[in-house]
Amino acid sequence: MSKREIVLDEPVMDEQSVALQQAVERAERAEAELEKIKRAGAHKPAPHAVSSAKAAPKQAAKADPAPSVAAGKESHPEADHGHALHHPELTGIDALREDAMMCHLLDSLEEGKDIGHYGRLTFTMIARHFLPDEDVIAELTRDQDFSEEQARLMVHQVEGRDYSPPRRERIAEWHAQQDYPIIPSPEDPDCGNVYRSLKFPTKTYSHIEHYQEEKLDSGK
């Protein structure tokens, strides 16, 4: 049996339909041409982009090297932050828990213990570099003997005077002046040395260096 070929009759179009179809075809051709121009322009780099790319290596060569805290000269006797145990990816409470003393203080606060005036001061002077003020206040008020108003006042005073994190010797002095043990293992010379176990913002080390230089200039 032979295949039967079916031929469809072409529709009869009046003049108006023909004109409309021609207009549609012209519009489609114009749109296709515009798309080609757009694609060609997208692959062609702009003149200013080429000049910027050529200038980039020279600018990079002239740029100052990134500051390296570990390589810089640091006058603080305990700022051995080049050997800090802190993991850069940790932030906030997790970062503070990298230090045994701060972990001890945080645990005591979570239990609602009275960590004493110097314990709260030590915590504030260190924690403010890792937590927003409101979070520092929230942690301080876990101490049942310390109100929110007192916590806000302490944070405000420490921020206002821009206190640097205290050295271990200073913390040990405060430790001896109150009942609550700020340093959990006072026999360990590294326990309480937050400059060894925590990584502070670069500006903190710069501030300490500047302070030490002022002390040397004043002969103190």
Please, could you describe this protein's structure?
By secondary structure, the chain is an all-alpha fold. It has a domain at 83-218. The protein contains ten helices and no strands. It has helices at residues 15-43, 47-62, 92-96, 100-110, 116-127, 133-140, 148-161, 168-176, 194-197, 202-218. It is rod-shaped and about 105 Å long. Residues 6-12, 47-88 and 209-216 have low confidence and may be disordered.
Strand-helix topology:
Blueprint: H1 15-43, H2 47-62, H3 92-96, H4 100-110, H5 116-127, H6 133-140, H7 148-161, H8 168-176, H9 194-197, H10 202-218
Helix pairs in contact: 6-7
Structural features:
57% helix; 220 residues; mainly alpha; rod-shaped
Average pLDDT rating: 73
Share of β-strand residues: under 5%
Shape category? rod-shaped
Helix/strand/pairing category:
mainly alpha
Tell me the Rg in angstroms: 35 Å
Q: What's the total count of β strands? A: 0
Q: In terms of per-residue confidence, which ranges show pLDDT below 50 for 5 or more consecutive residues?
A: 6-12, 47-88, 209-216
What's the order of the H and E elements? Answer: HHHHHHHHHH
Number of helices: 10
How much helix, percentage-wise, in residues? 55-70%
Cα-to-Cα separation, first versus last residue: 116 Å
Please give the largest β-sheet: none
